Amino acid sequence: MIAGWCYDSVSSSGCRQPPGTCKLRHDITKCSCGLVLYTYSYESHIHGRRHQQIFAGIQPPVSRRRTGARTKQQCPHCRPSREYRENELQAHIATHTVQERLQTALEDAQRDKYGIVVSGPEGIDFGIIDEAKQQSAMVVALVQRTNQDDTAVPISLTKCRMLSSQRQDEPGDKFSVTVAPTSRFIRSGQPHKIFITFHPSYAGRFEDTLELVFFDISQRRRFVIQRKVCATVGDLADHKQLAPKALYTQRKCRNIELDGPIKHSLRPPTWTPTKWVSKLPQFDIPQKLVSTLYTPEGYLKKSALQDVKQFLPSSFTTPTYAQHFQTLVYLEEQQMKLDLDDYSMENVEIKAKYPRYELQVEGLSEGRPSVVVGDFILIRPVGQPDKTWFEGRVHSVAMRHVSLRLSDDFNTYRGTKFDVRFVLNRLSFRRMHRALVNKNDPARLLFPGPEHLTMARPVTSAMLEEIAPLNRDIGRNREQLETVAAIVHQQRGSVPFIVFGPPGTGKTVTIVEAIEQLLKRDPNSRILACTPNNSAADLIAQKLMHLGPTDVFRLNSMTRKLGDLPKTLRKFSLTNDNEVFAMPALERVLKYRVVVSTCISAGALPDLGVKLGHFTCIFIDEAGQGKEPEIMIPIKGLANKHTNVVLAGDLKQLGPIVHSRLARDLGLKESYLARLMQRPCYGLSPWDGGVSGGLGVTIMQLVKNFRSHPDILAFPNEKFYGNQLQACGDPLLTKSLETTDELPTKRFPIVFHSVVGRDQRESSSPSFFNISEATLVKKYCASLIAKKGIRAEHIAVITPYHAQRMKILDLFHRDAKLSDIRVGSVEEFQGQERRIIIMSTVRSNAEFITSDIRRTLGFVASPHRFNVAVTRAQALLVVIGNSDVLALDPLWRSFMNYIHIKGGWRGHRISWDPKANVDDFAEGVRSKAAGDAEETMARLKALIVSVGEGGDAIPLADSDADEIDGGLGDGLVLREED
Ligand SMILES: Nc1ncnc2c1ncn2[C@@H]1O[C@H](COP(=O)(O)OP(=O)(O)OP(=O)(O)O)[C@@H](O)[C@H]1O
């Protein structure tokens, strides 16, 4: 008679509480007699049995409404009072988060109920509507009655509306709804047709909810059935080309234990043999550190922050410097090792391509996991009793697979399935340790103070006059010239000199000039120029190319892909016949006057035999971006007591990336540049012997921006640099696109194009893409490149997600004119500039926009990343994104306000008052979050009253029914039947 009504199956309704612990009814089901029964977890089965006895054989009830009296079949246990329901609701609210409760209620609202079936249970999708056609589209949803005797139990459709029509800030002008027939009552065999019409006006994704309110007269209950409605307006061909090939499923982390012996095999890739003069020590992570701080499962213990103190020195001074940073480097390595273990694979196949083996690795192109040539991968045939792991060496890395060499005994396992573990490449960590433990004249480099400044003098006009600038621009700017003069006149063995300045102030150009001046003045000078990343190192090498390949060498890691090196730099690098980078012999290195490399690659130089002090001056550009131990690879690894060090950077741009939370908390996130700048001798007040100011002697600040249009500079200048920056760029360049058609307001060269797209993911990649934004990026690029004088190298596209990068490149490859446009992340563009920058911010999740989303918004999460991204453009900046999502962040909100007020807005209209004050960032976000929560709760309560929570509809009390009859004012109210 009754299906499942007296079971204590609380969890089956989707409640997150363990079965039996939640105090609210979750399993509400119907007796065949037509009554609604409730199962209360705390009333156990007794109520059910009693109910069964009471109701056995009873006929369906007649309408209470008509008789005006409660039928005697009504079970008092099944009819909790309003007060009782309120109490339960409160108890439930106390044990569930707002999101959980709302989710449960929304899922419930979308279920068909009481024999009423609405088409489109998964949602009503208009599909992709061609933007070019601009035609209205219509879909028809059916409402049908299936299993009820409609004469005895009439159900009427009392309201039909789109929810957006209820929101004041978003007039429901996109979707509209009509119903046929216009009768209130739903009868079997006579479906009601709901006509939903969509009127596209601009590209993007449009979402709404169709809400149908029914009234069951016999049970005196109101209930709601909702359907999500969506439409996407855009380029049909792009959507077809970029649509996800496979549905996104979260990749399961598999941590396969290393529980068997490892069979090593020496099968290095086709590298040119290098004459290493010394062997890099291992610097293995101390086992004690791991066992003290981590659980056997690899989680950080709760006591780790306390326990780590035993591995750290009690003070941070020159003698304890190495121990302090070595501990942090061990922590970082351990975390990266654990992260990599999550990429282990079970039961996979390996293709034999003798003498190599091919292993498919999902996510390889995104660096998940990151594998480079020369890495080791452990492979074990499944089901072997001895559990031996075979060590494979990576010989090449493609988009989706790696090619490995293994030992000959591995051949016997052909056709078998394998378990795979990736092995962290430890080279960079070992190089950091080796540099840290070097004991070469460290105090002036690590903790510079007034005692190291005895020979320091400010730059005099005589010193300035002595400089004949090779770059005439430098000659015209006194600050840069002074900086060059200060560097050139530094005594041998001075404290590090800092060139500090916001974006585009010419730091790189200045240090390049200083390098050339040093070379010119002293034929014996030898320069090492390093940066934390390859693209910034390429930039410096390109600026020095005119010195010729006999003097300048671009040292590349043997694992770098040749294709990533700018073609112009090939003759400044060393490759072997297999097009793989090679290490030069010591004699060759010693001949070069300038070596340019990343900080990590500079760690190869001591192993090649380069002695401490060989380089007279070591320059580090973008110094704020590297971790201190990484920056120490060239500094402590190669400087002696005579070597000078010059750092250039900006603390408001990208900082070091640190994976270990513990290492971050202990200071690894602070760069060497940031730490030095806190020391008194680097104070930005004029030179006073280094007691509290060093301007002009130990540090120079550049404030003239030569890169960007004044309007592009204005916002970051105000937000990050206290309006200290002066826009001094060449107007011929910075104002060259002031009248381009793309601008909504001429002479204001910034566009914010708001588009409500959809952020999607595919297969196992956690990276997001947004087709609507990719289409817009393509359109802007195509229209700009069609203009006279604009070429692919003038444009760059910045996007925070790898998947979006790949989708945009996919579109660009279809058009020869666009295929050379560079698309990359903010990190790749730090230090670079382009005439036109187009940004795609990707995230567009319109549902549940609460504070938790802020963590994953890419650009939004980091003001530093935002600053770097918007300061790359010289003449035109186009930002494409979902304004409603970005507005969650006060910084973005004020940026969008700035653009809107200046007339640079396009697309989806702004949904807030751009003139409202957003100065108080934190307060704004807090009140938004609180507002969201309140709105969410209001929606939740409304739904709970009408549809019940976690179950079926709750019968209304008599007063409820009266309220409903008199109160169906909003939405489409249907005509009473005659
Ligand atoms: N004195 C100058 N006169 C004219 N243009 C200059 C001058 N100095 C630098 N520039 C130009 O300004 C632009 C920015 O210079 P550069 O890349 O050196 O700045 P940066 O401070 O290193 O920037 P970022 O912090 O973004 O790396 C370049 O196009 C450069 O040629």
From TrEMBL:
GO biological process: regulatory ncRNA-mediated gene silencing
Chief localization: cytoplasm
Annotated ranges, domain Helicase MOV-10 helical: 281-339
Top-level EC class: hydrolase
Record carries keyword Repeat: no
GO cellular component, one term: cytoplasm
Protein name: RNA helicase
Alphabetical list of PANTHER family matching this protein: CANCER/TESTIS ANTIGEN 55, CANCER_TESTIS ANTIGEN 55
Any one GO molecular-function label of the UniProt entry: RNA binding
Cellular localisation: Cytoplasm
DNA2/NAM7 helicase helicase domain sequence ranges: 477-546, 590-661
Key word ATP-binding present: yes
Enzyme Commission designation: 3.6.4.13
Source organism superkingdom: Eukaryota
Segments forming domain Helicase MOV-10-like beta-barrel: 343-422
Domain DNA2/NAM7 helicase-like C-terminal as annotated: residue spans: 699-883
Family that this chain belongs to: Belongs to the DNA2/NAM7 helicase family. SDE3 subfamily.
Catalytic activity: ATP + H2O = ADP + phosphate + H(+)
Swiss-Prot/TrEMBL keywords: ATP-binding, Cytoplasm, Helicase, Hydrolase, Nucleotide-binding, RNA-mediated gene silencing
